[in-house]
Amino acid sequence: MTRSQEKLWIWTLYQFFKYLWTDEIISNIYGESKRYAIQKNASKPLTISKNEINQYLGICIYASLVHLPNYRAYCSEELGFDQIKETMPLKKFETIRQYLHFNDNDKHLPRDHPNYDRLHKIRSLHYELNKNFAKVPLERYQSIDEQICSTKVRHYMKQYLTMKPHKWGFKFFVLSGISGFA
């Protein structure tokens, strides 16, 4: 393991989160979400902070590790997780989820335009995250594998893979190292 890799692995989870989800990305999400809320209802501006965006993303990542039917279950008395309940109230989470935006809708081109981008709504986030992932030091021994992110949405990029446990979803090629980091 190289010196830069050793440095990477002694970080806390929060430091690693901030390495990928930089302040620039959070500021962009914050600004675009506020803009979208004004576009939807100018009389009721969105009252959130950049820290709450961080918390929202952290909750989404944490909730992806333990699957429950919906977010309300994470806050319920029977099944709920104290870490999630103490981080953000349910109403605030649902408000952020309702207005979460990554790009300006006013710059979205019509379908028949030659420069139409199907991923316009997430293009800036995609670019910034790819840039940050490229900065992660590579390990000496690596493997490339295909993975599927299961989904029920209708989308042109969704694929059917017969050999996967979750048949329908988005296919990704994942580069992973011997340490298990992918």
Describe this entry's structure for a reader.
This protein is of the alpha+beta class. Helix content is 45%, strand content 12%. Strands 1-3-2 form a 3-stranded antiparallel beta sheet, with no helix packed on it. A hairpin with a 7-residue loop joins β2 and β3. The chain is globular and about 55 Å long. The two termini are 16 Å apart. The mean pLDDT is 86. InterPro entries: PGBD. Pfam families: DDE_Tnp_1_7.
Poorly predicted runs: none
Largest sheet: 3 strands, antiparallel
How would you describe the shape? globular
Number of DSSP strand runs? 3
Quick synopsis:
InterPro entries: PGBD (IPR029526). The chain is an alpha+beta fold and 182 residues long. The protein is 45% helix and 12% strand.
Q: Mind sketching the topology for me?
A:
Elements: H1 3-9, H2 13-20, H3 23-40, H4 50-65, H5 71-75, H6 82-87, H7 90-99, H8 123-134, E1 142-150, E2 159-160, E3 168-177
